[in-house]
Write a structure and sequence with these properties.
about 160 residues, Rossmann fold, five-stranded parallel sheet
């Protein structure tokens, strides 16, 4: 198998998909492409961890049962949850699955994600992702502003 190389530039908005359900994968790829993201697809847990550690993804969409039979076997989600916040703060993490209630903040917090989506609402995926990104930008705006001021002044 020949390795694929996809260069990321400073103007790109990289997104990582970890979805095994073919219909969900196509819906997510289509939505993210329409939103201007450069989409990378992980086919297994090792690819997910390698990609996540090499690129600062702005968006991560992770299926509840990605390469797993039960949620507890989802090694990609477990890896994300065990990472320090500083390592994953740059990415908006969205979990998609049957057991989630869309926009349930307590569920998202419990799972170390920014948002959870029930798969029954995949037909609204573009609108849901746009809302999640806008909410995330608003939530982190003060943090990012302070971080930029510190960086600019060299404090």
């Amino acid at each position: 198998m020949v390795a694929e190389f996809d260069f990321i530039t400073a103007k790109d908005k990289p997104a990582l998909l970890a979805v095994t359900n073919p219909e969900w994968l196509e819906a997510a790829k289509s939505a993210l492409n329409e939103m201007g993201y450069k989409v990378h697809v992980a086919n297994n847990h090792d690819e997910f961890r390698t990609n996540f550690n090499q690129i600062q993804f702005q968006m991560v969409v992770l299926e509840e049962l990605f390469a797993a039979n039960i949620p507890e076997e989802n090694r990609s989600l477990l890896a994300l949850q065990s990472m320090p916040m500083a390592q994953r703060r740059h990415a908006v993490v969205v979990l998609v699955g049957d057991s989630y209630v869309t926009f349930n903040l307590m569920q998202a917090l419990q799972l170390s994600a920014h948002a959870v989506l029930n798969r029954s609402e995949m037909f609204l995926l573009i609108q849901l992702l746009q809302k999640i990104v806008a909410d995330n930008d608003l939530f982190y705006s003060a943090y990012r502003s302070a971080q930029n001021r510190i960086h600019d002044t060299g404090e």
